[in-house]
Design goal:
The structure holds 3 protein chains of 3 kinds. Chain B is of the alpha/beta class. Chain B has 12 helices and 12 strands. The chains are: A mainly alpha, B alpha/beta, C alpha/beta.
Chain lengths: 315, 328, 331
């Protein structure tokens, strides 16, 4: 039997293949993407390693010195002589440390909310797209109705309902999880829509039919065959959603329905800071706000770039 | 046929192509159905290649899908070695293992995110035929059977050309050791020089493993080259079934004759292609009686009123009123 | 010898990619004489459609004509402005593509599209243009053309749509029609009708045709001469009967014998081993040498150019170079 020429050159290493891939190349030649990644990495890194990077744990009352209250940035405190890079807030907490810890909370809530939305959205999308018919219509109508309400409204609603059910003594402990569910629930629809659309395309492709011919279980076909092929757009939405979720969390915390005061996020810090703006202590508001802006913007830019890079028509 | 491997009896499939309910109510329309196949019956003997030819709208791919259980028939039965294949009721694994399918587009039939080894061994794992290590070895062996290298198991489909991908698809079809393979236009997405390689490979594998093929194709020269018997479909109905090469020398049904006349003449024998009159009607509203009558040079009154039933011909069966008259 | 209508010389089309420049066409030369049908065959990726696109200036960027010349009646058309090319397209060169829907605008009736095209290129009144359009539709075999001309493209079946496209391509009386896989999307029984119409109507009007297709059967029936492309290079050019019945280039010979016919008796098809190389991995020397049973010394070293043969044939193969053969006598 004659064969087509089929040389087997030495397998390049996995790392080299990743470096050489089209996506990596597109990344290497996109300065905006590189800058955005750097900014995002610095902020995320700071948040993750906050306990080691911060000069103090701002939520440990033992480490606080009220005398340091309202110290402006880079100026020694009149009483204690201590200097803070970004100043100190009304309780004498180092702003930089507070922001590092606050970003930690914000990122945790944002990432978990996106994860929740992703799992829910992917499952609903796969199921609706695979089954089609009235199941699909029903699920997608629910999604449409939800999309008609602003995300913050839904989050507020969920939050309010959850408060009514959760006993007082658990409220602070569970608040953060309620927040995650609230933001996640307001965000799953776009995952579901994209996955459903892509599933409807993929399920008619012949590789899916080949799996059906041998009687592979539908759940296996959905998750092992179809899901890997629809992950591209899902990742794009996840990135952009992360930015939105962080902002949503900040908004809710700003409105005072978010995380408990013992675990302030960037939104809480901004809420606290804005009351001192008029009295001239600008740094208590400005630095958390800038951090939020930089984080949301860099993640969003990264998502935008990823969407373009994965879209073959724009390449 | 004494003991056919596959027996298809009165196979019919309708698709609901109606507009949504609300539109129907507002526009006062009835439900609309497209009859992809109507009352199709044939048998496939062990070790033979039975081909179905037809143009678009003939329903040949719908039959293929029903035979492998991807679609449930609206009426009629498919029997595989005495057991019913019924997509609606569920097909037992032991039966599923015995038939496989090769698809038209080798760029769509392999999951782009899977490695070739995983793709080929999927049927082995799904049917639980071997443990993981053996399945991997088997995938390598099958690659060599279809003319590729065992080292290719770690590659992804995009690293292969169209012809090589079709070989991988064939290796996957072989991995559950089936007796029967439905080949849906296996070479129509390939270039001619590669087509020859794949057709030769299919024949070699048939001899080696005693396979039975159902070959779906629109290309009469491919069908002639590969098949022991041929069924000709027109608008969802089987108009003629005949012994392989005889169909090309003694076509009985006027549609078969028309199809043969339309094949481009590569031998430059000077035979002028006789352009065919008309086009294929819309399958949602097929002509009454014999669906071919508006294009048929032999049509007479009865053809417009009565659907012809298959009758014996010297080379097989054909469904045509004109044949009745010739005899009577 | 008469002056060729279209003359392509050493045409090179390149597509820059980040892994280097891909040569889709590598020094392709051929002529089309007035009124003749030239068939352009080759496997997918051989460059036949790109040749057509290069002639009408429709190569998708970043692809570009890197060198070579294209002349229409002696006038260069490969380096003219897009506006000048737009005037040539439609007026002097008509186009028929595989999918009729890419050539027809779904928002306008067939009449609007035909009349507009006619009036863009020919100075005449609207009524006169309409009369021409109806006559043309009637000629390409649209029944009740006077009534159906006011229908939209989606009212026509696939075969009828391709007839409309042919009418559109011919309405400004071009000298050359480039037909890129005009029948590939159609059923066999409709294919023969379309080929017939295209061939007859071009013959009537003296338009030359460049027929791009992978279907040797269509070429055999339609073309006067055939050009065989392989990996972006011309392998063989010659009168269709000779090329099909006694191919000179080993690739053409292999290609021809690998096609199953309605008369052959053998059980196995002749197959060419391997597949056409990808554009980034074209072997040195003759692009076909790794698959060629007759390859010898020079084939792996030096690329063969088209060598003129008897009977107006040309073949790019060292087997037909006497000097090279003498160097390696045992072949």
């Amino acid at each position: 039997m004659t064969t087509e020429p089929n040389p087997t050159p030495k397998e390049p290493s996995r790392l080299y293949r990743m470096w050489d891939s089209d996506l990596a190349y597109a990344f290497r030649t996109a300065p905006v993407a590189i800058a955005a990644t750097l900014v995002a990495l610095i902020i995320i890194g700071g948040a993750v390693f906050a306990p080691w990077l911060a000069t103090m744990n701002p939520f440990n009352p033992a480490e606080l010195n009220l005398m340091n209250g309202f110290t402006p940035p880079m100026e020694p405190n009149a009483f204690t002589g201590e200097t803070f890079l970004m100043g100190a807030d009304n309780q004498g907490r180092d702003m930089l440390s507070t922001i590092l810890y606050g970003t930690r909370t914000s990122l945790f809530v944002g990432a978990m909310a996106v994860l929740f939305a992703m799992v829910l959205g992917i499952s609903v999308g796969l199921f609706a797209g695979w089954r089609g018919g009235w199941v699909d219509s029903a699920l997608m109508r629910v999604a449409d109705v939800q999309l008609a309400f602003p995300a913050i409204l839904i989050a507020l609603l969920v939050f309010g309902i959850a408060r009514g059910f959760i006993p007082d003594n658990l409220r602070d402990q569970l608040a953060i999880w309620v927040l995650i569910v609230a933001i996640g629930l307001s965000d799953w629809v776009q995952f579901a829509r994209v996955v459903r659309g892509a599933t409807m395309v993929e399920k008619n492709k012949e590789y899916v039919q080949a799996a059906r011919v041998i009687g592979a279980h539908p759940v296996k076909i959905m998750f092992r065959h179809i899901l890997p092929n629809v992950m591209g757009p899902v990742l794009v939405i996840a990135t952009i959603s992360l930015a939105l979720a962080i902002i949503a969390e900040a908004t809710l915390s700003f409105l005072g329905v978010g995380v408990p005061p013992t675990q302030p996020s960037l939104g809480t810090l901004i809420r606290i800071g804005q009351s001192f703006l008029i009295s001239g202590e600008w740094w208590i508001l400005l630095f958390p706000a800038l951090t939020l802006l930089a984080l949301a913007l860099s993640v969003n830019l990264l998502g935008d770039w990823l969407r373009d890079a994965l879209n073959p028509r724009l390449r | 046929m004494s003991d056919p491997l596959v027996k298809i009896d009165g196979l019919t499939r309708r698709f609901d192509v109606s507009k949504p309910w609300l539109n129907r109510v507002i526009e006062r329309e009835d439900k609309q159905f497209l009859t992809a196949n109507a009352d199709v019956s044939f048998e496939i003997g062990r070790g033979e290649t039975f081909a179905l030819v037809g143009e678009s709208g003939s329903g040949k791919s719908t039959i293929a899908k029903m035979v492998v259980g991807l679609l449930a028939p609206s009426a009629g039965t498919i029997t595989f070695d005495g057991q019913r294949i019924d997509a609606g009721a569920g097909i037992p694994r032991s039966l599923r293992r015995r038939f496989q399918m090769i698809f038209q587009d080798p760029f769509a039939s392999l999951n782009p995110r899977w490695r070739v080894g995983e793709i080929i061994s999927e049927p082995i794992r799904t049917f639980g035929l071997m443990n993981a290590t053996d399945a991997r070895k088997e995938a390598g062996r099958l690659l060599e059977v279809v003319g590729l290298s065992a080292n290719d198991v770690n590659k992804f489909p995009h690293e292969f050309s169209g012809g090589q991908r079709q070989r991988i698809a064939i290796a996957r079809a072989l991995s559950s050791k089936p007796e029967f393979i439905v080949c849906d236009e296996p070479t129509s997405a390939l270039d001619v020089s590669v087509q020859a390689q794949i057709l030769n490979l299919m024949r070699d594998l048939q001899d080696e493993f005693g396979l039975t093929y159902l070959l779906i194709s629109h290309d009469l020269s491919v069908v002639r080259h590969m098949s022991s018997r041929i069924g000709v479909l027109y608008l969802g109905r089987l108009v003629e079934v005949a012994q392989g090469k005889k169909l090309f020398t003694e076509p009985q049904h006027p549609y078969t004759r028309m199809l043969l006349d339309a094949v481009p003449d590569l031998a430059l024998s000077g035979r002028r292609r006789r352009p065919v009159e008309g086009e294929i009607p819309n399958p949602i509203s097929p002509p009454s009686g014999c669906a071919f009558h508006p294009r048929c040079p032999l049509a007479f009154d009865r053809c417009k009123q009565e659907i012809p039933q298959p009758r014996q011909t010297p080379i097989g069966q054909a469904a045509c009123h004109a044949l009745d008259h010739a005899v009577a | 010898m008469a002056e060729p209508l279209l003359s392509v010389r050493d045409l090179v089309v390149e597509f820059p990619t980040r892994r280097g420049i891909l040569r889709a066409l590598d020094r392709v030369s051929f002529d089309i004489m007035p009124g003749e049908v030239l068939g352009m065959v080759g496997e997918s990726g051989a460059g036949k459609s790109i040749t057509g696109a290069a002639i009408i200036g429709l190569i998708e960027p970043p692809g570009r004509i890197a060198s070579g010349e294209i002349r229409l009646k002696g006038q260069r058309i490969d380096n003219i402005t897009p506006e000048a090319m737009r005037k040539i397209r439609g007026k002097r060169i008509g186009m028929v593509f595989q999918d009729p829907l890419t050539s027809l605008n779904p928002l306008y009736t067939v009449a609007q599209q035909l009349i507009e095209t006619i009036r863009t290129h020919i100075d005449c009144s609207e009524a006169e243009a309409r009369k021409r359009a109806v006559a043309l539709l009637d000629r390409v075999g649209i029944p009740a053309a006077a009534r159906r001309i006011d229908d939209y493209p989606h009212h026509f079946s696939g075969g009828m749509r391709q007839r409309v496209v042919i009418a559109l391509a011919l309405c400004a009386e071009p000298e050359l029609v480039i037909a890129d896989e005009p029948t590939t999307a159609l059923d066999v029984s409709v294919q023969s009708q379309i080929i017939e119409v295209l061939k007859d109507i071009c013959a009537e009007r003296g338009a030359a045709v460049m027929l791009i297709t992978h279907d040797m059967g269509v070429i055999a029936e339609t073309a006067d001469r055939v050009a065989v492309l392989y990996a972006g290079r011309m392998a063989e050019v010659g009168p269709v009967r000779e090329v099909i019945t006694e191919a000179m280039h080993p690739y053409t010979a292999g290609l021809m014998s690998s096609i199953p016919t309605l008369t052959q008796e053998s059980d196995r098809l002749v197959q060419i081993p391997g597949a056409m190389p990808r554009l980034n991995a074209i072997p040195t020397g003759c692009a076909f040498n790794p698959r060629c049973a007759k390859a010898f010394g020079p084939c792996t070293v030096e690329r063969p150019e088209l060598i003129a043969q008897e009977g107006g044939r040309q073949v790019a193969c060292w087997l037909y170079d006497e000097a090279k053969r003498r160097e390696v006598p045992h072949v």
